[in-house]
Amino acid sequence: AAIPGATASSTKSGKYAAGSSTTSESSSSTGKPQVRWRMLIDNERTEFVPRLVVKHNQQVPLDASISEAQCKVGLRSVSDSVAARASGGGTAAQTVPEAMSDDLLRAHLGALGVGKPENASRLPHPYVHEIDSLSWPNEFFRIKCPQRYEKVEDTPLVFVRTERELEQMIEELKSCRGSEIAVDVEHHDQRSFRGFVCLVQISTRQKDFIIDPFEIFEAMHLLNEVFSDPQILKVLHGADMDVIWLQRDFSVYLVNMFDTGLATRALKLAGGYGLANLVQHYCSVKLDKKYQTADWRQRPLPPDYIHYARLDTHYLLYCFDCLRNVLLTQEGNVFNMRAALPEDSAKLHATEEGVRALQAVLDRSRTLCKTQHAECPLDPESAVDKLCERYSSKQRPLDQRQTRLLCRLVQWRDRLARNLDESWNFIAPDACLWRISLSMPTAASQLRGILNPVPPIVHERAQEIMDLVARNNEGAGNALSASAAATAAAAETTAVAPQTKDVVPQLDSSDVARPQVAAVHSTTIASATESAALTSRASPGVNGGCLVAEPWPVRRSTSAPQPVVHVNVMGAGCKPEHDVAAQPAGGLRALLFGMAIAAEEALAQEGSPAAHRIRAAMRFAAAVP
Question: Do the Cβ atoms of 51 and 39 come closer than 8 Å?
Fold first, then answer.
């Protein structure tokens, strides 16, 4: 789903930005209508199973795998699943007892959670055969005079709020066989993890319909009788998300669809590919798009909302007529725009290239119809990578501790959003998680200085975030302790290695290189002899002074920067503020080992509070690749 729970990113192409931070102010006071169909919501499920018990307009029966999956989740009885397979929905010939035994076994294994292999593919599209076998008559590829739309005030508007009204509308729409209907959807995803459809608009050449699904959510699947009918062309604009939302909420599938958004792209329509530009271009009507991010949960809907919703489909059939005519006139890369004019359309004829251009739009629309909604469990690593690509920079990348915290925060937000049935964006926007990871606050009061404003859920659960930061720091400390233990073991191995008897010269100014940052980038481990030599060489430089070690941030574009160590040695034989020279990787590693040992000998006996920090920092620097 987008990615399910995505932060305001499930938008309709060129038309909507659902879940935007500009959602209507009433969002905070509007209740959650999804409690009415709570039994249909499962934010923890890992597989989408359509509630398509009856397959309308079928050419082949419902696939047996779908029936079996419905049986497992309680949408269908075992006997119904067997009947579906017996009627030809399966691929293997089985007797009724064998099939029933198979179903019972699968249901039992499914209940135990062991019946499905990890690499099992998703369920097939219920209408894939009907979509693939779809064809259009020759008459469809002829230029026709566009049928002018009626004025809005002269067009009846029908509200559908009950199951009885839904059935009556469906019976009326069946009379459109051999013709077209326009369809649009209004969606909300700011105060819901999955999001849900708030309105379905349908227009014929004579009427506009607005369906309020809130009281008839479980009956909306009846729309399949019209939407899956190959004899009725469904005209939508920017249908990529509409197709998914209709499947997810109502198990409604589209067969025979024309996406006017794809047609505008094929024509390279001047002014853009959005619905507002399309209507302006062919109807000279300016649509007010200020409600595209409105809170469509409101009930009753304000009159302005209703007017806005009906206009999204009212002009669409006329625009379809114009687009089809213009596509059919293609010659080379040129389209005759006069084909959209009623007075000129009768004089023009379709070209071979034009027929191919229209067929290409139909084929792309067919492909859209075959897309499927799928449940997408959170992948924390992928989510962190995307956030790093979006927010990271060469000046301020995350280090390893910050990246680990960001991963914890992403998982915390996902769990909370699923439990509360809220969107990621409402719990904590992406920028909020990024700023917390950068700052790593240690007190809840610090959040007010980091975030402006502080999201309500973050304010309420600030202590949970502080606990995450603390656990993240503890994890880093445990890793540091393990690294120190490994370093100590390596040092012991070095101590028992044969020592050279040569006199080691004192460290003087000629041995100190120009100040520079030493990048530790190799995983090669120095030999015991090299370690011993460098240890004895480093010791005189620290015996008479103070050893300081601190991490030095690296400026790299990668989201996982390699550590860089900055070391100052001050004391006998050393110039103040000069850096230890960068040696070959193995040599620098051994040098750090030796300096840690020297620091311990020089400072630990005196009980210096800096001793532990120095040893830990040096051993960490030596152990990290």
Answer: no
Strands 257-259 and 233-236: parallel
Listed as own residue / partner, the contacts of 447-453 with beta carbons closer than 8 Å and 24 or more positions apart are none
Report the first-to-last Cα separation within the chain, whole angstroms.
Answer: 37
What is d(CA 255, CA 180) in angstroms, rounded to the nearest whole number? Answer: 12
Helices (H) and strands (E) in the chain, counts: 23, 9
| 39-43, 423-427, 477-481: least confident range | 477-481
Tokens of 518: 């030493």
Neighbour tally for 612: CB within 10 Å: 14
Question: What single-letter amino acid sits at 202?
Answer: I
How would you label 102-133 residue by residue, b for 16+ Cβ within 10 Å and e otherwise?
A: bbeebbeebeeeeeeeeeeeebebbbbebbee
pLDDT grade, residue 41 (50/70/90)? confident
Short-list 553, 623, 613, 563, CA closest to 592: 623
Other C-beta atoms closer than 10 Å to the C-beta of 613 total 13
Q: What is the pTM of this model?
A: 0.69
- The sign one gets for the Cα dihedral 249, 250, 251, 256 is negative
Residue 71 φ/ψ, nearest 5 degrees: -65, -40
- Go through 152-191 and write b for each residue having 16 or more CB atoms within 10 A of its CB, e for each that does not: eeebebeebeeeebbeebbeebeebeeebbbbbbbbbbbb
